[in-house]
Design brief:
mainly beta; Acetoacetate decarboxylase-like; lyase; Acetoacetate decarboxylase; globular; twelve-stranded mixed beta sheet; single chain; acetoacetate decarboxylase activity; about 5% helix; Acetoacetate_decarboxylase; 2 helices; ADC_dom_sf
Length: about 250
Amino acid sequence: MPAPTAVTIPDWSTPLYHPAPHHFRDCTRVMLLCGVPEGVTRRLLPEPLEPIGDFVVVSWLLIGDVDGYKGSHNVAFNVPCRFEEHVGKFCSLEYIDIDMGLAAGREMWPWPKKGGEFTWERTPEGLSLACRRHGDVLVRSEITVTGEPAGAWPAELNVPDMGPCNLQVRLLAQDHASEPEIAQVIRVDYPNSVLHGSLRAEGTLTLTDGPRDPFGPLGDIRVLAARLDTQEFDFDLGQVVGSRRI
């Protein structure tokens, strides 16, 4: 009998995803390093995570293939953080256009995901990107690729090392109607990660509030640096590395 995995949907109901690990191949990622006002990252992080610096990394991802699903997209807002000796990033919001990733992300890895519709267009300079939800354009970026090799963020920005992992928080309550009482920290790593290439870029970020999609908590967000990565990775079940009563 196969070992149980952390899923909330019975096998007989035909879940939208199979058990982890999930294999992401032929991925193109645009990363925008953004600065935010002091105190913003603290408000974006749930307890017991602690912020590291005043940065938010906005990640646009085109997934060539994930376990047979072709050409899906997402855009995520990540905050550098720590919990005890663990250092990583917390995904505070993600829009995605594939139901497999939406369901698995929320149910298995407590990722705050929403459905979205995407534009990912090649331009003579680079890329034109947009995310819509219920017809409203929420996020836009225009990317110019310089062609110069990139790697780490520019040293003068003093960007913290976010490590190769996410730290997500699952809130637990004693019963369905009560307020959460326990916050579990789940560390999610990315085994078999391969970075095939990384190019320096320049990028813009335009955020527009929707009826249920406010971006006010980000404050005066500004793009500090950008890059274009090509990569592949696996996405496995995380491990609970600690919990706190809240």
